[in-house]
Prior knowledge:
There is one protein chain. This protein has helices spanning 2-8, 54-74; strands at 14-19, 33-39, 43-49. The mean pLDDT is 83. The protein is 34% helix and 24% strand. The protein is an alpha+beta fold. The radius of gyration is 13 Å and the shape is globular. The protein starts with a helix and ends in an 8-residue tail after the last helix. A 3-stranded antiparallel beta sheet has the order 1-2-3. It has 2 helices and 3 strands; from the N terminus they run αβββα.
Amino acid sequence: MAVGSRRIFDADLGLSTTGVAGPDAHDGKPVGTVCIGSRGTASRLRARSRARDREMVRRWAEQAALDLLRRRLAGLPGPSAR
């Protein structure tokens, strides 16, 4: 998705999020599983299991995606996948 968003918007960086916000698990993945991808000159992926409340999962994913973007723009290393 990050590659597609970069291509569609003719952007230097693409950012994407996907996961299971709830209320139920999906395809064996527990509620709170979030994957965030970015694509510039390299791809990064981050997945974590967080809060079980749908709104909290969505808010955390938003903040984590923005943090990954901030790190990429600042030339900082990305967080490790956990």
